[in-house]
Amino acid sequence: MSRRRFHRRISKQFVPSSTAAARIIRLELLVDKQAAALAAGNAQLVKLQIRSRSLSRDVQPGLRELEQKLEQQSAVLRKLADSTDQSNQDANQLREQLAALQGAVAKQFELVLRALKAGEAVATAPKSAAQKAVRQG
C-alpha cells in the first residue's frame, strides 16, 4: 500500500463526516437534556428534603405527647392488671372459705339430724313401752 492511500484512510477515519457530526450534536443535545432533567430532579429532591425536615419538626411534639400518653396508659393498665390479679386471689380465698363453711354447716346439720333422731327415739321409747304395758295389762 502506498503512503498516499494509507494517509487517506487514516485521515478519513479521523475527520468527522457530516453524519458523524450530526450524531455528536444529537448526543450533546441528549446530554444537555439529561443534565437539565438531573438538575430538575435534584431541585425536587432538595424541596422534598426541606418539606420532610419541616414536617418532622411539626410532627415531633405530637409524637412526644403520644408517647407520654401511651406510657401513662400502660402504667394504668399495669395497675389494673395487678388489681385484677389481687381480686382473683381474693375471690379464690372466698371460694375456699365458702366451701369450708358449707362443709362445717353440713356437719352441723348432720349432728342436728342425729340429735333429733336420737331425741325422737328416746321420746318414742317410753310411749311405746307404756303402750305395750297398756296392751298387756
Helices and strands in order, then pairings?
Elements: H1 3-14, H2 18-136
Explain how this protein is built.
The protein has helices spanning 3-14, 18-136. It is mostly helical. Keywords: Coiled coil. Residues 63-104 form a coiled coil.
How large a portion of the residues is in β-strands, by DSSP E?
under 5%
Distance between the termini: 175 Å
Oligomer: single chain
Gyration radius (Cα, Å) is 55 Å
pLDDT averaged residue by residue: 85
Number of strands: 0
Low-confidence stretches: none
Helix and strand run: HH
What structural class do the secondary elements suggest?
mainly alpha
- Helical fraction equals over 70%
**Biggest sheet layout:** none
Give the tally of structural domains: 1
